[in-house]
Amino acid sequence: MQQHKLATIEDVAAMAGVSIATVSRAINEPTKVADATRRRVTDAIARTGYTTNAMARSLRMRRSNMILILAPDVGDPNFSNILVGLETEASKRGYGLLIGNTQNDPSRETDYLRFISSNQADGLILFTGHLPYGLGQSPDEARLPPMVAVNEPVIGSDVPFVGVDNFEGARVATEHLVSQGHRRIAFVGRAPNREIARLREQGYRAALAGAGIAVDPRLVIDGEGTTESGRAAAELMFVRDALPTAFFCVNDATAMGVMIALNARRYDLPRQFSIMGFDDISFASFLTPSLTTMKQPRHRMGEAAMELLLTLLAGDKPKSLEVLLRSELIVRNSVMRPERG
C-alpha cells in the first residue's frame, strides 16, 4: 500500500507562490499578512493537506485563533447584527468566535473565562459593560488578555471601546422633535448607572437647552430599556398628569412599550403623541405607526471592534483606543407636528 508523504511548509509556499516566512506569518500572525496573500496560503494549506501541521504549530505557539465574546443577552436585537460584523472581520483574519451568553450571572462569566486560562481563546469582546468577573478589577493586571468593549463601554477602565456617539445621536433625535414644533418632550429610560442611557439623557438635555427649552423633571422617567418599562413609563405620565407632546425613548424596545400603552388608551398616533426611538432594530419599521429612530451602524461596529482587538493581539499600536461611530436619523411615520403646545 502506497504511503503519501506528509505535506510540508515548503509545499504550501510553492503552491501559494510565496516565501516560507510568509506562510508562517499567515498561520501564526494572520493580521500581518495581506488578505489576498492569506487567502492563497489558506487555499494551499487545504489543497496540500497541511492543515494538521498548521494546527499543531498553532498549539505550540499557545495560540488558538479564537476570540471569546461575552454578552449578557444574545437575544438583544442589537447583538445579532454586531455579531455578523465581528464574525466577518474575524474570518478575514483567520479567527473563529466563541460566544458566552452570561445572562448577567457572575458564575457563568467565570466559567466562560476558562477558555482564556486554558489557551482556547486569545482575546475578549465584551458586551457586558464591565470587566469579567474573575479577572480582577484593573485592566492593567498582567493576566488580563487583550479585550475590547463594544456597544457598552467599561466605565472606570482603560478597556478600548467601539460604539456609537450616544450623546450626539440623542441630541440629533431631540432636535428633530424640536424642529417639528415640540416643546414638551419626555425622556423615557433614565438610568444613571448605565452609561448608554446616561449619555442619551445628556444629549436630550443639551438639545433642549440649545433650543431654550427648560427640562420639566416630571417628563424624565426612569426605565430599564425594556418594552415593559416603556409601557409603565407612559402610564406614569398619566398618573403625574404631566403629558408631553412627544416621547424620546432611550431605545426602540422602550418606544414600543410607550406605543403599546398609548394604543391601549386609544390615542391616535402620531396625531396626538409623537414617538422617537433609538437603535433601529429589525421590527422598528413594522410598528404602527412605523418608528422614527436613530440607526446604529451595528455591522460596522462589529467590524471595527474586531479590527481593534486583532491589532492589539498582533502587538501593534492602534490609531485610537476609542472608536465612536455616527448614528443616522431614520424618519418614518411616528413623528409629526403637535396639535397642542
Give a description of the structure.
The protein has 341 residues and is α/β, with parallel strands linked by helices. The protein has 3 domains: 9-60, 434 Repressor (Amino-terminal Domain), CATH 1.10.260; 66-164 and 298-326, Rossmann fold; 166-295, Rossmann fold. Helices cover 41% and strands 15% of the residues. The chain contains 12 helices and 12 strands. It has a 6-stranded parallel beta sheet, sandwiched between helices. A 4-stranded parallel beta sheet has the order 7-6-8-9, with helices on both faces. A two-stranded antiparallel sheet has the order 10-12. Strand 6, helix 9 (195-210) and strand 7 (220-222) form a beta-alpha-beta unit. Helix 8 (166-179) packs parallel to helix 9 and helix 10 crosses helix 11. The model is unreliable at 52-57 and 137-142 (pLDDT under 50). InterPro entries: HTH_LacI (IPR000843), LacI/GalR-like_sensor (IPR046335), Lambda_DNA-bd_dom_sf (IPR010982), Peripla_BP_I (IPR028082). Pfam families: LacI, Peripla_BP_3. It comes from Devosia lucknowensis. This is Transcriptional regulator, LacI family. Residues 7-61 form the HTH lacI-type domain.
